[in-house]
Structures are given as structure tokens and as C-alpha cells.
Amino acid sequence: MKFLDLAKVYIRSGGGGGGCVSFRREKYIEYGGPDGGDGGKGGSVVAETVDGLNTLIDFRYQQHFFAKNGQPGMGNQRTGKDGGEIVLRVPVGTEILDEDEETVIADMTELGQRVELARGGNGGFGNLHFKSSTNQAPRRANPGQPGVERTIWLRLKLIADVGLLGLPNAGKSTFLAATSNARPKIADYPFTTLHPNLGVVGVDNVEFVVADIPGLIEGAHEGRGLGDLFLGHVERCAVLLHLVDGTSDNVAGDWQTIINEVEQYGEGLSTKPRITVLNKTDALMPEELEEKMAELEAVAGKVLPMSGATSQNVVEVLRHLRTRIDAGRLREKKKSVSGEEEEDGGWQP
Fold this sequence. Notes:
Number of strands: 15
Order of helices and strands: EEHEEEEEEEHEEEHEHEHE
Distance between the termini: 20 Å
Largest sheet: 7 strands, mixed
Strand content: 15-25%
Shape: rod-shaped
Low-confidence stretches: 336-349
């Protein structure tokens, strides 16, 4: 399934049916009178979050959602049929924006959440509704209310507990593959990751979700490379894991590049808790590791060494992440078929 996190959608609710002007005329019935029914209500357009979706790809193939109109009222006091409701099924974490792409209509963060985007028009009153002691033969009926037509944007922000940051080829996908059952593309060239990936990680009897986004480069906030297009997927994270490539000639400069892009992006990312990790330590000699750790700690503070490829110190990094995640976000770790808990580092979702 392809990943899509932004979609433009056209919606229109149904108009209400018009009221009916009708009089009862039957043989052998002395008194007839008005019997025109009301029109049916037009169908509404609503959005609902459902389980099992993590992309908006469905809205690439269908962008128009028009609800049906209500049926007009009929004689013999019959009310018209209501128009059917249209439901836009979206993944959890979807933001619904107005046409200007800035005004937030709704933020769908809970499973089963429903939001009415366009209300169907009410049906018009038939002439039976206007009957009174002074107007016993009304010849008027109301038309139904028109539907609402609007253009909206759907923007998906994945809900994860940990967000991975780093330059291309910093080892983010390798870390995700080593700690979860996710299988992101891994290669020895930059921009291997073209769309976000999610993985469920387990350590010390708890689980949390890690989001891997494409790497950032200098000037990403100006649209260079893949730009900051995917930074929205780490806005909801509780903690950021910043991976720095240990084989780089300038680890401090690489760290500062990502920090600058995060600050330029805004949206509160720069104030989120952040853990800095020097990755690919298996490719460094002991004296090189010590030198680069000192260089990075001079600008970033505390730094953890790690090798995602060999799983060296991976469990220690996961434990640091766990301490920075809110207790409400953590979930109990699943147990194996035998009923015994998996060993740390070897668990798979």
C-alpha cells in the first residue's frame, strides 16, 4: 500500500426535499383538507476515524463525496425519505483543514471519533403543517434547505511515541529494523527512506511506537531535498531520538544542521525532549569513538553511543527513551505463545 499523507477532497451535503401541497379528496368522505407531507432531510457528510488505516491513499482515487438529497413530501401525509449519510473513513491522527490549508476544522486523534463536516439541509414543510382554524385550506409549502458544498484538506500526522531525526544515511531505518518488526528499505545511499515508517518497539515489559521519517538536509525548511514535508509526523511524539552518523567527518556540524532545521520548522518541535545518539560506533576505532563523543558532547550535552547494525547499546537507548515517554503512552508488552516474556532486544511485534 502506498503512503499518502495529504489529500484534497470536495464534499457536498444533500439538500432537503420540498414540502408537498396536497388535499385529501376521496369519495364518500365529507371532509378532506390538506394532507401534504414534509420533505426528507438531506444526507450529511461526516468524517470518522477507523482502525487499520495509516495512509490517505484511498482519497487519491476518489476526491468527490456528494450526499443524496432528501425526497420531496407526498400526499396522504407522507414524509419524503432522508438522504443517506456519507462517511469519510480516515486514520487516527488526521487533521481536517479548510480550503486555505491553515484553518483546522478538526483534529482526529481518537479511534471512533466522528465530526460532521457538512450538514444536510432540512426538508421543507408541507401544507399540512400550516393548517389552522383560520386557514383550513393552506396552499403553501416550504422548499427544502440547500446542502453545503465545501473543499477540505486531509493531512495525516502519524501518532507515535518516539520520532527519529537525522541526516540521510544516519542509520534511522537500521535502528527501526533492529528494534521492531518493521522492514524499511535500507541501502548505502542517501534518501533511501521516501515515506514515514512505523514500528512497535518493546523493552522492559512495555511497548511504544517509533516513527522513522526521511532524512533532513541543510535548507530543508526552504524545500531542499525532501524538505520538511514529513516533520509533521513527529509533532505528536513524546520524545525525539536524534541519530548522528559516527563515520561523518563533522559530527558536531551534522548535529547542528538538524537542530537548525527543527527550529526553522517550529510547531514546538525544538522544545520537545530529545536524546542524542552517536550511531555506527562499530565502524570506529576506540580512539576515534572517544574523540567524536567529546566533539559531539561539547555542543549537544549528554550523548549515547550505539550501533544499530550490531545492536550494540540498543537496549540502553530504548531504556532511555522509555524514561522520557509519558506513562500514559506506554503499553504492556505482549507475551509469547508459551506465556513467558521475550528477552530484551529480541522481542518482535
